[in-house]
């Protein structure tokens, strides 16, 4: 199994290109199921989760081709990909595929809306929490779906071949359920109003994509989304937004090691709350024509308290990385996780590097130390793994991060991007 070896202590300096967002690319790819035309997506990151979703969509009959301009589309770089769901050959998403990636459950929305039926495996548990799918099921029922849960599968059908628009108030904000209901309602009969919808930039990217395909969606990015259903959707060409979590991760790495890095292609408006917090820790952040410049010279790291919450607040997907940063702050900080109940796996591993963290319910109290020391570590999810990478960059000596496949799910060319800025980091195979 591959490992990442880091020798910490270097400041980061240079330019890091920001890739297309994993969490935007996945729903856009799933939207290709809604039309028999070609959906062309630009800036699709080259990640294990994207490859896995290509396999899952292929199982339903979606063809794909990586197009054009070969020289710009080297192996491992973001690409333009055409998806064509001309013939849906299977409306079942089997356990073997769905259990590997939770977001593949989201195919239930477009399959049901276009084909009138879907049989999708329940995703099961995952490392960061129980993550139920009750809101998806309740919302689809409100749109007229008939649902049955049988032997681990959700079996869904429409009553008269088509979903019917309605009003649904999410009892809790859910990114995935908002994506799914927006896709399903696009092909429903009549108007759907979604209240207390998620406002994440990835929701806006999906709404733009669906509108480019002929949908009639207003209000994406606000808590109320209105969708006038249409009979059919067409193809479109849409660009995946830059990855705000990758952006925040590298910004925190620089805030931790010190240095001066331009995050090329990053959009500050996609993570303003996180950038504001990073500034409070003592780093300088300047929006530039290229993206975002992050600098920290000399000054120590100030402790800052953070609570995760749905967008536009501080994202749960940056909580582990921020905890990494706070392990070397000049004092105590409190980090509260409100989205997932079990997202503190990195705490014990950061402790192996010398961090002082105590847990009290959903809050981690981090008592900053002057130095971390390298050690072998591992993690069981993507963001926890990358928090260990950034802590390793700032630690003295050698850190090895095991189970690199977690990082490959969500960080494109991580070692290359960091070593390009002076980090000593390499992948060791086997
Ligand atoms: C998306 O997951 C992201 N995944 C996650 O990123 C991210 O952490 C999360 O949103 C929150 O921002 C993708 O976009 C592919 P939710 P999602 O539905 O949609 C509860 C990463 O590291 N809930 O907004 O699955 C749920 O358990 C990943 O890239 C229900 O109770 O998250 C959680 O507590 C990890 N019932 C809360 O809502 C439901 O039916 C928010 O989850 C659905 C969700």
Unreliable runs, pLDDT <50, ≥5 residues?
none
- What structural category do the secondary elements indicate? alpha/beta
How many whole angstroms does the radius of gyration measure? 22 Å
**Strand portion:** 25-35%
Major sheet strand order: 22-23-1-24
Percentage of residues assigned to helices: 25-40%
Task: Please write out the topology.
Elements: E1 3-7, E2 12-17, H1 22-31, E3 38-44, H2 48-60, E4 63-66, E5 79-84, E6 92-93, H3 95-98, H4 108-115, E7 117-121, H5 134-142, E8 145-150, E9 153-158, E10 167-169, H6 175-186, E11 191-195, H7 201-212, E12 216-218, E13 225-228, E14 236-239, H8 244-257, E15 259-264, H9 272-280, E16 284-287, E17 291-296, E18 306-307, H10 319-326, E19 332-336, H11 346-352, E20 356-360, E21 363-367, E22 376-378, H12 382-394, E23 398-402, H13 405-410, H14 414-419, E24 424-428
Parallel strand pairs: 2-15, 3-14, 6-7, 10-11, 18-19, 22-23
Antiparallel strand pairs: 1-23, 1-24, 3-5, 4-5, 7-9, 8-9, 11-13, 12-13, 15-17, 16-17, 19-21, 20-21
The chain binds ligand EPZ.
Task: Provide a descriptive summary of the structure in words.
The protein has 430 residues and is α/β, with parallel strands linked by helices. The protein contains 14 helices and 24 strands. It has a 4-stranded mixed β-sheet with strand order 22-23-1-24. Strands 2-15-17-16 form a 4-stranded mixed β-sheet, with helices on one face. It has a 4-stranded mixed β-sheet with strand order 4-5-3-14, with helices on one face. A hairpin with a 6-residue loop joins strand 12 (216-218) and strand 13 (225-228). Helix 8 packs parallel to helix 10 (319-326). The radius of gyration is 22 Å and the shape is elongated. The relative contact order is 0.16. The mean pLDDT is 95. The structure holds ligand EPZ. Ligand EPZ is lined by residues 23, 26, 102-103, 129, 131-136, 172, 174-177, 315-317, 339-340, 382-383, 410.
């Amino acid at each position: 199994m591959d490992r990442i070896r880091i020798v910490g202590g270097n400041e980061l300096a240079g330019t890091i290109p920001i890739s297309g967002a994993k969490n935007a690319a996945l729903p856009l790819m799933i939207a290709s199921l809604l039309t028999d035309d070609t959906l062309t997506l630009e800036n699709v990151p080259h990640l294990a989760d994207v490859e896995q979703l290509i396999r899952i969509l292929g199982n339903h009959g979606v063809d794909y081709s990586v197009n054009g301009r070969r020289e710009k589309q080297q192996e491992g770089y973001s690409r333009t990909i055409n998806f064509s769901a001309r013939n849906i050959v299977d409306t079942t998403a089997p356990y073997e595929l769905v259990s590997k990636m939770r977001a593949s459950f989201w195919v239930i929305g477009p399959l049901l809306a276009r084909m009138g039926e879907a049989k999708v495996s329940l995703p099961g548990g995952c490392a960061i929490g129980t993550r139920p799918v009750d809101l998806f099921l309740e919302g689809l029922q409100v749109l007229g779906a008939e649902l049955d849960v049988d032997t681990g599968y959700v079996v869904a059908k429409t009553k008269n071949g088509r979903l019917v628009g309605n009003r649904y108030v999410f009892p809790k904000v859910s990114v995935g359920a908002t994506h799914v209901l927006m896709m399903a309602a696009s092909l429903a009969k009549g108007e759907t109003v979604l209240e207390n919808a998620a406002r994440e930039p990835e929701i806006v990217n999906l709404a733009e994509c669906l509108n480019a395909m002929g949908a009639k969606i207003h209000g994406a990015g606000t808590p109320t989304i209105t969708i006038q259903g249409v009979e059919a959707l067409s193809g479109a060409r849409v660009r995946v937004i830059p990855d705000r979590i990758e952006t925040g991760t590298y910004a925190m790495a620089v805030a931790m090691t010190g240095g001066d890095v331009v995050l090329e292609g990053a959009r500050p408006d996609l993570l303003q709350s996180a950038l504001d917090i990073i500034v409070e820790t003592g780093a300088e952040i300047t929006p530039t024509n290229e993206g975002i410049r992050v600098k920290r010279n000399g000054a120590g790291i100030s402790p800052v308290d953070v609570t995760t919450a749905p967008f536009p607040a501080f994202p749960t997907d940056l909580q582990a990385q921020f905890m990494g940063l706070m392990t070397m702050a000049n004092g105590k900080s409190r980090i509260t996780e409100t989205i997932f109940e079990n997202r503190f796996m990195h705490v014990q591993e950061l402790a192996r590097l010398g961090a002082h963290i105590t847990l009290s319910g959903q809050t981690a109290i981090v008592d900053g130390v002057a130095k971390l020391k390298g050690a072998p570590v591992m993690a069981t999810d993507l963001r926890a793994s990358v928090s260990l990478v950034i802590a390793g960059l700032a630690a003295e000596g050698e850190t090895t991060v095991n189970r690199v496949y977690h990082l490959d799910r969500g960080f494109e060319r991580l070692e290359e991007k960091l070593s390009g800025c002076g980090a000593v980091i390499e992948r060791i195979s086997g």
